[in-house]
Structures are given as structure tokens and as C-alpha cells.
Structures
1.
Amino acid sequence: MILMMDFDSETPIYMQIKNQIIKGIAKGTVENIEELPSVRALAEDIGVNMHTVNKAYNLLKDEGYIKIDRRKGAVISLNLDETTGKFKEKMTEEIDYFIAECINRRITQEELNSIINAHYANYFEKVK
Amino acid sequence: MGEKIVFLSIVLIMFFTGYNINKLSNTGIYFGVRIPSKFKEDKDLLKEFKLYKKWFLLLNVPIICIVGLFINMKESATMILVGTIIVIIATGIPRIIFWKRLKALKESKGWIKESKNMVVVDTSLRKPSKNRNENPLPTKYFILLIIFPIITLILTVMNFDKLPDLVPIHFNFQGIADGFADKGTRDGIVKIYSLVLSQFFIVGLFIFINKVIIKGKTDLNGGGIKALVIKKRKFKRINSIFMFVMGLEIEILYLAMQIAIIFNLNIQLINIIQLVVVSMTGIIYVIISFIIGQGGKNISINENEEEIYRDDDKHWIFGSLYYNKNDMSLMVEKRVGVGYTINVAHPIGMLIGIGTILLLVGSLVYMIYMGI
């Protein structure tokens, strides 16, 4: 998996790490059990503090995307059932907010739908 | 005679690497300055390359000739060391001058603005690839080298009683013994086993080097991601294989030397073989490096991806000394030249750096003092 960290972005680095690993899993560029680099190795490669990587890994662990194996380190292992309910709540809330923004900005339902469809399809295209 | 072979191969390597400095630097690095690849055909840049080669020859050909003449007149270890230091400095000076010139050129052309503050990481680069031909040799191969010191150790222990009381352990280049170990003293016993100890140390050293090759930080900068990853993988593999061959060579040579000492064989022959093998290995390494380039940059791959370009000039003193406090890694890829270098800002890196300078100065002072 390729991670691209943008140091000029407003998104903090730990969030970028977390988001990109989740995107990588969705895109299928990571295999289900791929071992992630150790906290130290990833921190070295990105050039950040180990706490930053640790924070990202802990968030991923809490959400059920990875588990920390004593010998292998961080391993991708999907165990999302527990957190899906919580996620749906959060998602509904955020989608509601986005729809409000869209209505205010006169973005039509069709337009919104096509954007969503395009992004959804994006995740299934690149696997080939 | 022997010292001259060593000196000659050092001069050859320094001259060749100095002259072809940009081919032997990491991707996108010219005289230690990072240049975006779309400007690498820039007229003013090409002019600098030509000018460098001219000045390099004008400065170094006379200096190397003079140093060579001096060594020819008075061959001694001190002369060789001083000569080597002079050649290293002389071949380095043009590079530092052009490092400054290129930084000014980059500034004036505004290329610095091209930099994106982005870091790209391939999380699988440290992991073995599915394709076996892309992987560095596993560390267990290097651990197997331990057979050699064990053989040497057993041979020495078994034949210890048969050794004369005064064992010749060091020979000059004429093959005449000039160093002896007294079997009766503890100091002498340590000396007899010194080759075995070195062999064990060398196995450890090469295991460490291979670990650095496998686990060391890989900088994906100055090219397209996919192409860079393929190049880095190939580079790691070739480097690892070469290191294994080198480790094997050294271990066999040391074993041969110890056998010669134990059975009182002709040491001169082994001395010559050793020099030739070591010099040839160095030269072959430079040739391989020249072909594949630092980080595999000369391996040609169809590239049509967008270039990753992150300006990191400020972390490299004189364009070649790595000093980055925010980087936790001890070993990183060299910027100028092929192989790995230390991060001087790392506490251990700083210790190694200072230690090397002290060792060099110390041995020079010692050699002059002893009149060797």
C-alpha cells in the first residue's frame, strides 16, 4: 500500500495515516492480513514522531480495522461489526449536515447522487 | 608493492566516482542538490556538468600524479595514508564548489517552488515480495557465514600444541615475519586467536549491514512512485547479494591466513591473493554501482507517472552529510555516492562520526610518531 502524507494539509498526519489505510483497505490494495510496518518503521519513513503513528494505529484498532499482534505487530484484520452501528449513527448525522450544505448551495439531488456514485465506483475500478 | 596496489585501487575508485559523481548519486540529485526531473535537460544545468568534469580533471590529474610520484619515491604506510587523504579531499573539492554553484542556480531559476511538502511511503517495501527475485537475501544466509570462524577456531585449538613457542603472526609484504606471538603469555594467545575473533566480528558486521539493507529507510523522492519502488527493490537485492559475496570472500581469506600461520605455509602468496581480491572487489563494486546507480536509479523503467518532488536540501550538509534531528533513523541511503550513510543528528550516528575522525587523526599521529 502506498501512503501519501501531505504536510501542508490541514488534516493532521495521524488522521491522514488512518484515512489512507482505510481507503487502501476499501480499494483492495491491501490484503486482508497484510502486516503494517512497525510503529517505529512507519514513523521513520514519514519522518514523524512515534506518537503520531501510534495514535493512528490505536484509532484503527478501536474501530476494528487492525489488531495488534504481539509478534507480528499491527496486522490488518477487519472486525467492524461492533462499531458499524455507531458508524451509521455518525454517518447519518454527517450526511444530514452535508445535504443541508448542498441545499444552501443549490446543489441538486441528482448532482449529489452522481458524485456519490462516481466515488463509490472509484473503489471498485482500480482493483483490476 | 602491496601498498601500491591498495593505493592505486583507492585512487582509481575515487577518481572514477568523483568524475561520474552524478551518475552515482541518488535519483534527482546533482552535486548533492535536488533538481526536479523536468529540468534535468536545462541548458545552464548541462553547462555546469561539463564545467565540473573539466575542473575535476584539471585539479585531480596533476595532484594524483604528484602524490603518486611521492609514494613511488618513498613507500611507507604513513605516505599511503596521507596520500589517500589528499586524494579524497582533492576529488571532493570540485563537488563542494559545484554544490554551491548549483544551489545558487536553483535559487535563481526558482526551482525551489516546485517542491511539494509530501512524503510517500510504500508500506510493503520492508516486507519480502511475492516475487523471490526481487528480495534481498534473507539474514539467515549471513548467519551461515559463522561456519568459517568456527572452522578456524577448531583448527587453531586442535593444532595449538603443535605451534612453535613463538608463532609468526604478521608478515610484511616481502613475506618475512615481522610480528610474533608468545604462546606462553595471555597476550600471545589473544594474538593467535585474533583472526578468529575478527572473523566472528565480520559475520556480525555483515548481518548488521544486511539488516540495514532490508529494514533501512528508503526515501521515495525524485521520480514516479511505481518506478521508484521497483528500482529500490532491485537495488536492495543486488546490494545484499554483493555484501554476501564480500563477506564470504573475507571469511575464506582469513581462514586461509590462519591455516598458513598454523601450518607454516607460504604467507606471501596469500597476502598477494588477498590484496588482489580486495582491490578487485572494490573495483567491481564501483562498476556494478555505476551500472545500477544509487538506489537503482540507472535501471531503466518506462516512466510516465507524476514525479514526487520534495526539497530536502536543508538536511544535507555540503550536499552529502545527513543531519536531520526529526529523523529517527540511524542509517539512510546516501545522497551522493552508492550505499548507506549515517544520520549525524542521531546520537549513535554522532558517536560514529566523531569516532571515525578521532580514529583517522589518531592513527595518522601514531604512524608519524612511530615513523612507519
2.
Amino acid sequence: MNMSIPTENDLHAYSDGQLDEERQRQVESYLAANPDAARVVDQIRLETQRLRSTHQNLAQFTAPAHLDPARIRRELRARSRRRMAMAAMLVMGISVGGWGGWQAREGSLRADYVPMADAVQAYRLFASSDATPVVDLASTQPTELQAWLNRHFVQPEPIPDFNAFGFQPVGGRLVPSEYGTAAMIIYKNAQGHSIIYYVRPPGNVVNFGNGDRKEGNLLTQYWKQGRYFYAVVSPTDTGSTRAVQQAVEPNI
Amino acid sequence: MATPVTDEELSEILPRLRRFALSLTRDQNNADDLVQSCMERALTRAPSRRDDGDLRSWLFSIIYRQFLDSQRRSKRYGRILAFLGGADEMFSSSAEDIALARAGLGELGKLPAEQQSLLMLVSVEGLSYKETADILEVPIGTVMSRLSRARKALRERTDGRISVPSLRVMK
């Protein structure tokens, strides 16, 4: 049996009740025979008691509101929600940014681009009056007009024949457009109504779909074929053009 | 199986956490920062709670670890500041803070932080040497030898005797 004299550490541990049973009994019997050691233990216990009573009152340490567990729990939840939202926004940001950026890019190109607005413009300027239009080449011969068109464009589509609907070509005219030089063939019928056939290079327009568009009393039917964009502009306020419009439709 | 920590349990221990943190930092604001991050950790990492262990000592160990981390950070920061021309007043608490901390810690407030928190755990909180050793991340033997030194130091100070040698400037 180890009856060694308790060390100072043993006395502290004894005072604090930290010894195992056997060692505790040994120290106890030692203390009974050694009043000096017993006094040390008493002093330690007294000091511990004093400390405990001094610090018994925890009122001073009552937690402020921001340390309330329920509140911290709420904030943690809110924080994780914010993180999730942020992550979601990030993912969305990337995809929307990518997709939206692409859309915006096209949007900026499209913003001021109305399909074949120049064809409508050309119609208004050169074909809408009843007077004989001012043309570069006055001709009623489709072959002549075609030859003229071929000189200015590389392999353009053959000019349409609206003879069956009462419209004959009266001439061709070059018109400037922001996409490059365009050409128009003007057709007239017996009542003096005009139709134009319009050809122009695509310019910087990359996204062009076939379609039609009504602006005022004018219908523009447009399509892309080969290197060029084409349009037929005809008035809608007369029945005489309906058949022409129907004939053009399949092109679109 | 880890048991979730309830708000009631936490609320009950909260004042003790604040006091222990104060014994480490000697500044109530810093102490409360520690307590707050400890609670956040306890609430988010409840599974790491030792099931058999006492909730109080688990929370104390979190606080102590975070205290050490913050010490390391501020030391690093202090070195950078010193390198950049030094501004160490930033780290010393105001006289008022120290006085408040003293009031809160009583006689213990006169001891170095290390002895303060040790006596706080063993004598005031009544934790076992084993729990204390786990919290302070030292062997039990170290807890015991520090304990007798801390008690001696406290005795000297409360008896009014001056003990100049241990008044080391910590910087």
C-alpha cells in the first residue's frame, strides 16, 4: 500500500474532492495525524467557500437581449436563409446574366430596328403619290428591270410578276439605306395604286425572321433569300392588293 | 445520439458563460462577443456535443477555444500593426472596463487571466479537474500544479501582501 506523504497537489485535490476513494482515505488518515497539513486543507476549503459565496450572485451577468438564445437561433436561421438566397441569386445571376446578356445584346441591336422599315420609307417617298414616280430606269419590261437589278446585286431573286393581279412594273430605282444601297421596283395598276418590290443587303442585322408588318395603311411582307432581304410593300386600304398580298404570303 | 440544446438550457448557463468569458478577456464587450460566437457554434454544431458530458463544460470549452483563436488573431494583427508603426493602445482596455471587470470578478480580478479562469472553473463552478483539463486543453497534472500556484497567488493578494514578481506586462 502506498502510504506516501501527500504532496501539495494531493492536498488541493483532496480539498476539491478530486481524489479516488482509496487515495482519499490515505490522505484522510494522514491529515488526522498531521494538524499542519489539516490546516492547509481547511484554508483551501475556506477560500473555496469564500470564492463561491462571493460569486454566488449571477445577477450581474444576466445576459443582454442580443445574447438571448432564441434570438441568436432566429438570427442564425435568417443568416442561413440569406446565404441560401444569395447562393440562389448567384446561380440566377449567372444564368440570367448569361442569357439576359445575350438577350440584351440582341435587344440593343433590335431596339431601333424595325424590320424593313426602310422599305416602307422608300414606298412613302417614291411610290405613294399618284404622280408618275421618279425612277432610275423607267421600264415596263420585266427583263429590262431584271437586268438592271442584276447589275446592282449579285444574283438577286427574279422580280415578281404581278400581272395576273393587275399590277405592272413601271420602273426601278436605287435608294440609299443604312444597310447599303437598296433597290425598288415599282408596280402600278389601272387605278394608280402602287406596290413596291424592295431588295437590300442585310447590313449588320443578324437576326432576321421572315414576317409581315403593318404600319399605317401599308403592309410590308418580308423575307430573306440568299444574300439579300426582300420586301413587298402594298397598301391595305384598297381591295386591289389583297390578291397580291396572298400571292406573296407563301414566300414568308 | 446527440441531444439538441434547448433555449432554456442555454439561458440558464448564459450568465456563467459570460462570467467565464469575462475572466478570460477582462472586458465585458469582448466577453460577450465570445459568448455570442460560442452560442452560435453550439446552436449550429450541436451534434459535436458530448452526450455524456456536461453542457456547461462543453460550452466553456468552446469559449476557451475561441478565446485562444481570438488571441492568436489579435497577436498576429498586433504584430502587423507594430510592424506598420505600432498602435498597441488599441488592445488595452480602458480603465473603466478594467474596473468593471474587477467588480464582476471580485478578488479573482486581481489575478492573471490564466489563474483567474482556472479558479473560476474549479473553485467557483466546481468542475472536476478532468473537465477543467479538457476545457483548457492541458493535462490534469498541469491543472493541479497551476491550481496550487493560483491559490497561493490569490492568498497573497487578498492578504494585502504585495507580490511584484508575477506582475508581468503582457504584450
